[in-house]
Task: inverse folding
């Protein structure tokens, strides 16, 4: 469906990560290798944090990433310790900025690869489960935006993994009620600028690919084209829909039904299980 | 907010109506005289019926109409007996095709100038009142699209004026419940390709301007720049947010709280009164 | 580089040709099989003739064809006896409407797949060889537009094949002077709305693919998905960068260094040879 | 035609200058007071220098500045000591990024308000006078881009004011040869990131407006809405097509036929006179 990349660690020029690697995200927009779609040309977006600002910036546009000059300019001039990037392959939903990832509410960013099965049938019930105070934040028509607003409604700001687990539980509950066997297929990244979470999960247990670089040092050794990684701290992390080059050894595949936390101190890789969440009760 | 134009009658090259008049809708996109905003540069759209096709075509784009070459090309090449055109001035809502008018569902077109007051506060309740079968048709974030889907939910296809009256009643009921004194401000046009209805109404009784040409013949006499009107049938009608030239005598202002029906046989101008419609019961 | 399609014959709804075939041009924009690039997502265009109008209409846009709703709407509503369609893969040139094909001057349309080798080095000399009266028609930065204006400067309106042959001769002469061994690689279609010419040529003798349907009847028999071909006249022709489906037998490959003329009466397939043309003398 | 703004001095968040003033450039895009056109909605651009990079970044887009969310995001996150911003009103030239200002070659930025009279008639001769090594840098179709490439051809990098004077001399020479009485109308800003030059000149002696803030301190006193000016250095300068608020006293109008230099040390305001420049000899 889509391809995405999350970076956090030593402040980095976006260009080094977005354009320089051999099989960069920009290259994936044109020639994805592991995606359901080989072309991710239905829009793109980046979100990044600047020193001293709580709210991240987001740039989103509706054309392909590979030919966008403004994206290239920004990537050449913006350095950030934490940023997201996403290239979109629509499955029919409108091509518009508000359907492009990452989504932002306050200091939070959210991006997604995957789909809620038969979303058009579940959309009303899921939309109604959004906190009424957040409902008017809906600007587009994607499942991804609804998932984000649901996670926020269910406590993303307090305890992110539990909120995402409740969101998935809610989607599965609503899906099953409508006769959808496997409602959720997702790899999701979210961050508040301080910690970053990445989730790999699908109701069917056959999730889209997701990889992380546990030791950037090893990446540097294996990717001579990634020379700028020489100076990054050991705690710097990259999480990607598919590896940025031909050296799969440099990357670890995130296991099915897990999530990772990247945070000051020790990173963690933990099992992910949806939490029961009945939409009829969720907002009482 | 916006400016629009509705044409029905003798099949007409769109260019003659959209570009040729001295103060055409395209000119109004740059220099509106009677609008709340002088510039209507936040997108545009046209909808038109082709012989033998039930479903009208729609073209919508996010840039200004005045500099759009594709619109000019289409206008030079498409002839239609019934068409809508709209230029948009956003009040903050996203600039995207799915927020541009006209909206279409099946054979129906809908366009709007005005606003639901404090729509962000009423949006959730109004969205919930949309027929669940139509909910997934929501693609954008405007009040206008919600008004259309509500009107369809409330019987637009059976009895258009009553459905619009119920839609307005529902918006006013929801608005009052949220403490909004004057919830509705609208001039709306809608058509199924056979009959065309235009509504002028506001809760406050101070509606946006709306004009109609009762006798095209008189338009032709007064507008030497509208020579192509020479051959149109007497029953041809134009309804516009503001006159297409400096001759206000050629146009009749539609009175407050009225609606007009343009149809084979006799056109009608009738009073418009909202009908009570409780959203909690509307879909039972 | 690009993919294109030219149709002429029985008036046809664009949708039948652009969208309905299994491997339509729209599908080729996402998944080209025979192109140098598999993705042709850097803009698109159509040009079509309407009854009673000398000047064709053109619609061009900068996003991918595969997700463009306006193109789909136009294709559903426009019927034409002669039309061109093109999907673009840029090799670095700016993504802008004026770099999209087809190009139009007066009643002429022109579209191209291929490239002038090292165009940036030859561009000035080639631009200077354009008839000064046509120079200000340059709006973009492609080799294709320069080729068109050169062909017009060299008599396209009088004798199309000779003008194209002189244009190629001029490009080769200028190229060789700059040390470019094989300056031209092209498949070109051009029409004045009455006759249509398609050229396949490259200096190296290894031209991009080009196919034509000599007998539409055979297409219909082989392509059950092309049922609408049942009613077309025997003289209807399709010329395409690559076949519209899996039945290569339904198509004839145009030989190297040939051009075809589709015209009332008898179509012709003839050898194509560049004509000497010295830019220093061409405009004396 | 257009409106522009140049800033240089204490590193500044773009937002403070582009959005915060009462009659900011963004407001001028919708409601220009002193421009030939009241609406400047045909595209926009910014160019800015980042510490440690010779080459400035540029962001340009084809829609109006007033509704562009990406511009707002960048303005909220980018701080720069020297930046340009421009809002465009086209007079018929194509709406495309490559016609938007500022233009960039290497470390140079260039932006323009005005026009070469009858440019379509002079364009070929002027284009031929561009240094052949720079000819392939032409991407759009504006007079402004040609003026920039001519200035570069005539020594902008060595002695900017003399190069601009020769460029104007050349345009006037070519114009007069074609019977154009007053060929040039311009306010131009250009910078290499170290020094900044602004020119006000027209062949007729009736140039477009141009203002500068000689002492930012006075601006701060007069504009309570410009509080962030409190901390800027005394040498900080703003040059604008029209004042950013209702206090014309805070601004000095640049006199006819002058240019200003903003540079480390002492700024200067000097007379501007075109220098003779025959295109037939200019590149010998």
Result:
């Amino acid at each position: 469906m889509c391809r995405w990349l999350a970076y956090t660690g030593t402040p980095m020029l976006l260009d080094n990560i977005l354009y320089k690697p051999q099989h960069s995200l920009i290259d994936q927009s044109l020639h994805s290798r592991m995606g359901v779609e080989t072309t991710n040309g239905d829009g793109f977006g980046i979100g990044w944090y600047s020193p001293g600002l709580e709210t991240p910036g987001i740039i989103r546009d509706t054309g392909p990433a590979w030919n966008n000059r403004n994206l290239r300019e920004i990537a050449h001039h913006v350095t950030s310790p934490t940023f997201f990037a996403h290239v979109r392959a629509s499955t029919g939903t409108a091509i518009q900025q508000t359907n492009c990832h990452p989504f932002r509410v306050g200091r939070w960013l959210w991006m997604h690869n995957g789909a809620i099965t038969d979303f058009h049938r579940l959309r009303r019930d899921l939309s109604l489960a959004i906190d009424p105070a957040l409902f008017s934040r809906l600007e587009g028509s994607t499942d991804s935006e609804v998932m984000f607003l649901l996670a926020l409604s269910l406590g993303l700001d307090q305890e992110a993994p539990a909120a995402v687990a409740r969101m998935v539980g809610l989607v599965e509950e609503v899906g099953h009620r409508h006769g959808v066997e496997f409602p959720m297929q997702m790899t999701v990244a979210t961050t508040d600028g301080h910690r970053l979470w990445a989730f790999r999960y699908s109701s069917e247990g056959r999730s889209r690919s997701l990889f992380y670089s546990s030791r950037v040092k090893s990446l540097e050794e294996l990717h001579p084209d990634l020379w700028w990684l020489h100076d990054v701290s050991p705690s710097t992390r990259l999480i990607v829909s598919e590896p940025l080059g031909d050296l799969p050894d440099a990357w670890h595949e995130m296991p099915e039904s897990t999530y990772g936390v990247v945070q000051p101190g020790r990173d963690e890789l933990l099992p992910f299980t949806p939490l029961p969440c009945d939409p009829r009760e969720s907002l009482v």
Observations:
- Chain D touches chain C through 18 residues (CB under 8 Å).
- Chain D is about 25% helix and 25% strand.
